[in-house]
Amino acid sequence: MYGLKGKSFLTLHDYSSQQINYLLELAKELKMKKRMGIKGNLLEGKNVALIFEKPSTRTRCAFTVACVDEGAHPEYLGKNDIQLGYKESVADTARVLGRMFDAIEFRGFSQDTVEKLALYSGVPVYNGLTDLYHPTQILADLLTVKEHLGSLKGKKFAYIGDGRNNMANSLMIGCCKMGLHMVIVAPRTLWPDQGLIETCKAYAKEGGGSLIVTDEVNAVEGAHVLYTDVWCSMGEEEKAKERISLLKPYQVNEELIQLTNNPDMIFMHCLPAVKGNEVTEEVFEANYSVVFDQAENRMHTIKAVMVATLS
């Protein structure tokens, strides 16, 4: 369907708005089946390699449960379990795994690694997170927005904090392709790459949305979605003190919530959260916080990706 069979999921750059919407609708259907206790067999007989250079809660559990729910076998391969990039090249590892597995998930540092796995393995490869992109998270986020707000197109989506990390990058792509009005609120030193901004503005123009990048926190006014992420991504821990000082004015607190001036606003965070840094405990635990709906939806959307590309 929509040309997805055998297709890798490396970045939302590679997916049209129609393909993204199909995955969201499929995820909704699969979620309903699971809630009804209907066990699936759409991945029966499939074997999926799960490569993890970085630790994970949601990504690992989502892929594992999604596989088992539909009859597939997931095989976890930690950074000390295989020779990837150390004693064996990525290309050689890909060619070995591609002959044994029906698909490969990779969560690690380099986007180049996941691209090479897809190039050489001959099977669908899924990006569970790299330093550049986190596309499976964005699918879960978009599904969550649809569930709570009814639709995507025309909604104002404000992301505040570190504007050049993998989450900001991927949210820009996904929101602009799906016709949302995206606002990145970040200090100028943490703005996204200008080339990516221009690319996403083109996506927004085609999809009927818009993209603004600013350092003014009052740009969150009217937001239907207020989203943040940790101030220091994995591997950047040595920058913590500097980032806290720089980003303190961009904390999501009750004062910032009031700036949205939208009673229907929802708060989102991809987790894990450092409460007291990017978000206060009060906001995190509020009724408008949907962070655990997002976390659950990782499983349903990841399942949809695997079903669409493998079954």
From TrEMBL:
One of its GO terms (biological process) is L-arginine biosynthetic process via ornithine. The keyword Transferase applies. It is found in: Cytoplasm. Its main location: cytoplasm. Residues 7-147 form the Aspartate/ornithine carbamoyltransferase carbamoyl-P binding domain. Its EC number is 2.1.3.3. Keywords: Cytoplasm, Transferase. Gene3D superfamilies: Aspartate/ornithine carbamoyltransferase. One of its GO terms (molecular function) is ornithine carbamoyltransferase activity. It catalyses: carbamoyl phosphate + L-ornithine = L-citrulline + phosphate + H(+). Carbamoyl phosphate binds at residues 56-59, 83, 107, 134-137, 270-271, 298. Belongs to the aspartate/ornithine carbamoyltransferase superfamily. OTCase family. Reversibly catalyzes the transfer of the carbamoyl group from carbamoyl phosphate (CP) to the N(epsilon) atom of ornithine (ORN) to produce L-citrulline. This is Ornithine carbamoyltransferase.
